[in-house]
Amino acid sequence: MSASPDPLTPLAVASQVAVSSADPAHERSGGPATAPMLREADVAVMLEDVAAGYGATTVLSALSLEVARGELLGVVGPSGAGKTTLLRLLTGRADRYHGRIEVLGRAIRSGRAPVGVGYVPQLEGIDWDFPLTVEQVVLLGDATSSRAVPWFSRRERARAREVLDQLGLSGLHRRRIRELSGGQRQRMFLARALHRRCELLLLDEPTSGVDLATRREVLAALGELNARGLTIVLTTHDLNFVASHLPRIVCMNGGITADGDPNEVLTPTSLERTYGAPMRILHDRGRTVVVDADDLDLSPRSVRSIHPVGPHAVEASGADGELWP
Amino acid sequence: MSAWLLEPFQYAFFGRAMIAGVLIGAMCGALSVFVVLRRMSYIGHGLAHSVVGGVAVGVAFGLDLYVGAVAATVVSAVLIDRVGRRRGLHADAAIGIVTTAIFAIGVGTLSVVPTRINVEALLFGNILGVDRTDLWVAGGVGVAFLGLLVTLYKRLVFTTFDPEVAGVHGVRTELIELLFSLITAAVVVASVRVLGVLLIAAAVVIPAAIARLVTRSFGATLWLATGIGTVSSIVGLYGSFYVDVPSGPTIVLTGAALFVVVFGVTAVTANAGRRRVTREHAGDDGDRGGRGGRDGRGAGSDGGPVPSSANRTAAHR
């Protein structure tokens, strides 16, 4: 990966690509989707009036969504809103009761793996003591195309190292996976997805449980991949992450509650509809920041009784942001 | 020494037992890697228990020992696979329900229908009982296992490491898991004669547990576990011959003793390494104390504070 003075710069490049192909922000009120009409060849993901869930439990209903090729989309919503179910639908791993789903021009059928899709799971579910090296994990990403022998060819190894180099993991191919930092682990999984030559990358909570530095590292990697034309759909709980860095977000709670440019979609009304809790929006130096509403019992008096007010607390309360609306 | 090693081979049964033991030891060793990494250590225990049910019912109906054993373990493996897929249930619950139920059927059958089953040999293994059929069964299962391992190795490893992503990336994980369950059942059936029902569980756990203590890569773990399984079988069979106890306990005790040794050595090595690093840091602090002055700052070019030895030692942990 080439060095960049600001690791988030690639996302700005990506946003220009994506915004040009996406509809202006539009909030939805439960009615039919007003997704932009894209030429079929430009569509990476298409869901039309989909209802889905697990067994007899419906998680998503009346879901319609289009994601253009080359777009970078963030999906937000409360726990249980159906974010992960959306990803599972796109990979044929959730029960679809109604509707049509196409990924990269091919209809998705339950239980069938989609073609050209890479998936990056949550880091929490992985056994990091598993005796694999970084290179072996990346090579497994394309296991189905590999010959039916227990070893990988020299060409496959060379390609895996090339992908690792692209993601800034040069020289780490022999390292055990448990010896990697959080950001390196995410990039290793990105490399595994890319090794499959995917055109669509799905990420489940890539910023969950990682520190700020790791988040920047992951963001920079995603930005660069998106700038190269890879379509990316990610779920996250981190509203400020999507507000600051992604060109388009979809708010979900059993269906789509809002869809569009974060600066226009993230309003107290849409957030309350999505999360069922009041929130406020701050605009600070061109960035949108979502904060809790003031009605929680966190008055200075009660806070002071727990932690003495220090210089940082004063600084936070005196932020020169504009409360909106 | 060589006379001591060769003497048992004067008896035909020992030669057969050794062939079966080597095959079974290698298979259990290789299998143990997948069993341990999938956290399904009780799969061997459960399937072996279901063998009792199958053997008892089969013999009660006048069938060969293997017919009942194969039927019971295949049914168990398929049911464990199916039950374990239901949301809210995991493999351990499925193993507990399915295999215990089949075991209970066997115990009930044994108490109602009089059979001529040698219960001690069934439970603890008996090298005297290894016949040509056992060798054919062990050989056949060995060939099938090797074929599966060679052709599906990458898919097996991917499914074991990250089944969710393996499925998205085109691996037919359900089929792989079913095949794994079936081959586990086959290995268990082939092992009953030498290891006995109650001791198979250890044979499909101990080799991988030892190998994981000393290896870094999956391939090395697999090779080492296979070797440990084989060596445990060979040593255990000699033990069974000379001490005159059932072969199952001697094989398992050999593996367990090896585990204790490796565990102890690796623990001592790790402690020594920790002490060495602590000493190095203490030495650094001494040097720095001489140069750094009263404020505790080191001599770094940026003049920043140097963390205390205790903090850095904690960070190394």
Order of helices and strands of chain A: HEEEEHEEEHHHEHEHEEHHEEHHE
Distance between the termini of chain A: 41 Å
How large is the share of residues in beta strands of chain A?
A: 25-35%
Oligomer: heterodimer
CATH superfamily of chain A: P-loop containing nucleotide triphosphate hydrolases
At CATH's second level, what is the architecture of chain A? 3-Layer(aba) Sandwich
Q: Main sheet of chain B, how many strands, which sense, barrel?
A: none
How large is the radius of gyration of chain B? 25 Å
Name of the top-level CATH class of chain A:
Alpha Beta
- The CATH architecture of chain B comes to Orthogonal Bundle
Unreliably modeled segments of chain A: 1-35, 305-325
What is the fold named in CATH at topology level of chain B? ABC transporter involved in vitamin B12 uptake, BtuC
Order of helices and strands of chain B: HHHHHHHHHHHHHH
* Widest β-sheet, arrangement of strands of chain A: 1-11-10-4-9-8-7
Number of strands of chain B: 0
Largest interface: A-B, 38 and 30 residues
| Total beta strand runs of chain A | 14
CATH class of chain B: Mainly Alpha
